[in-house]
Write a structure and sequence with these properties.
By secondary structure, the protein is α+β, with helices and mostly antiparallel strands. The chain folds into 2 domains: 80 residues, Glutaredoxin, CATH 3.40.30.10; 99 residues, Glutathione S-transferase Yfyf (Class Pi), Chain A, domain 2, CATH 1.20.1050.10. The chain contains 8 helices and 4 strands. Helix 1 runs parallel beside helix 3, helix 1 crosses helix 8 and helix 5 packs across helix 7. The longest helix has 23 residues. Bound molecules: glutathione (GSH). The site of glutathione (GSH) has 11 residues, from helix 3. It comes from Pochonia chlamydosporia 170. GO terms for molecular function: glutathione transferase activity. This is Glutathione S-transferase. InterPro entries: Glutathione-S-Trfase_C-like, Glutathione-S-Trfase_C_sf, Glutathione_S-Trfase_N, GST_C, GST_superfamily, Thioredoxin-like_sf.
Length: 205
C-alpha cells in the first residue's frame, strides 16, 4: 500500500457555497487540510464530465462531492465527514451516546438536504412555511440538550458543519425562517468565528 501522503483533491460542482460538497469543504478548511480544488460547471457540460469522472474512478455514482485523500477516494458527503473525523480524532463525540446524537442529527440534516434540493428551482410554500420551520425547531431541541453553542456543547463535531450549511444555504435561497431559534443563532454566530472558517467566509461571501 502506498503510504505516501498526497494533497487532498476536492471535486465538486462550481456552485459557490451551496450544496453538499461545501459541507466537506468547510470541514477541510476548519481542520487546516490543504486542498486542491477541481470545480466543474453545473451546466450542459456536466453529464459528460460526470461520465469522465466515473471513468477516472473519481465517483462510482457520477455524483459529487468526491475527495481524493491520502490515497483513498471518498464519496457520500456525510460518511466522508465521519471518515475524516475518525482519521483526525475528535469531531465525532466521545461516548457511545454522543456519537449516536451526532449521527442522529446528521440523519435529520440528510432529510433536510433532500427537501432543500427538491425546492431549489421552485420553492414551494410547503417547504418555506412548513418544512423549514419544522426542521429548525426540531434542531433547536437537540441544540438545547447541551449548553451550546455546538450540538455537544463546547466541542465542535462533524455534524455542526452540515447544520451550519443548512442554515447558510436556506439563507441564500431565501427560505430561512425569520425567527430562527436562539440556540441556532448562537450556534451560527459562534461557528462563523472559528478562525479558519472566519477567514474563509470573509473571502468567499
Ligand atoms: N449521497 C450523495 C449525493 C451526492 C449528490 O447528489 N450530489 C449532487 C450535488 S450536491 C450531484 O452530484 N448532482 C449532479 C448529478 O446528479 O449529476 C452525497 O451525500 O454526497
Amino acid at each position: 500500500m502506498n503510504s505516501q501522503k498526497v494533497a487532498a483533491v476536492y471535486h465538486y460542482l462550481d456552485i459557490g457555497r451551496l450544496g453538499r460538497g461545501e459541507v466537506v469543504h468547510l470541514f477541510l478548511k476548519d481542520a487546516g487540510i490543504e486542498v486542491k480544488q477541481a470545480r466543474y460547471p453545473s451546466d450542459s457540460t456536466w453529464p459528460q464530465q460526470s461520465e469522465t469522472l466515473k471513468e477516472q474512478g473519481i465517483t462510482r455514482t457520477g455524483k459529487v462531492p468526491s475527495l481524493e485523500y491520502n490515497g483513498q477516494i471518498l464519496t457520500q458527503h456525510i460518511p466522508t465527514l465521519r471518515y475524516l473525523a475518525r482519521e483526525l480524532g475528535g469531531y465525532g463525540g466521545e461516548s457511545n451516546w454522543e456519537k449516536y446524537v451526532v449521527d442522529a442529527v446528521s440523519d435529520i440534516y440528510i432529510d433536510w438536504r433532500t427537501q432543500w434540493v427538491a425546492n431549489l428551482k421552485n420553492k414551494s410554500a410547503e417547504y418555506k412555511d412548513k418544512f423549514a420551520p419544522w426542521y429548525y425547531n426540531l434542531l433547536a431541541q437537540y441544540y438545547t440538550d447541551y449548553e451550546g453553542p455546538y450540538l455537544l456543547g463546547s466541542r465542535v463535531t462533524y455534524v455542526d458543519f452540515a447544520i451550519y450549511q443548512s442554515i447558510d444555504n436556506d439563507q441564500r435561497t431565501g427560505t430561512l425562517p425569520a425567527d430562527l431559534p436562539v440556540s441556532l443563532v448562537k450556534f451560527r454566530d459562534t461557528f462563523e468565528k472559528r478562525p479558519n472558517i472566519a477567514e474563509y467566509i470573509k473571502q468567499n461571501k
